[in-house]
Amino acid sequence: MNTVSLLSLNWQAHSRMNRKPLILLLTIAVLGCSTAPRYGGKGAPNKSRKASSKVKGHRRIQTGMSSYYAEDFHGKVTANGETYDMYGLTAAHKTLPLNTLVRVTNLDNKKSIILRINDRGPYAKGRILDCSYGAAVKLGFVGIGTAKVKIEIIEIGDDKYMKRKE
Predict the structure, then answer these.
(1) I want to staple 105 with a disulfide (CB 3.0 to 4.6 A). Which of 70, 110, 112, 152 is the partner?
(2) β-pairing, 112-119 with 90-92?
(3) pTM metric for this prediction
């Protein structure tokens, strides 16, 4: 064999060896980009609790005025039995099942967060939601006191009262 043939064979063998790690890396990269399920454990999430256009007599999207409550209720028991944390991301709604997850958007500044309904209220006329102080800070209406909001139901809650440890 001449020198050119030997160099050609050597190059072909070398390029085949370099392909294997490259193919392996590409395979790992493609598989690593797949999406993970939202919930761990066995099976898919419970689809029956997802929000449809109307959920057990509740409109999936509601708009109206929201206010917030803070120091006067901090540390007191909420409607679902947990202790109210004014810095938490929770809210009070008159009729949505307790522990329902909602996306609340301040329609004036477009800030949006996800809150859990853990209390009943508001009791002021013309309001549809009472946010915790922490939620009002993130939504940007603490200084004003109220804001026009859009409430979108993400997941209906179990409406269960949490047993308190005394």
Answers:
(1) 112
(2) parallel
(3) 0.65
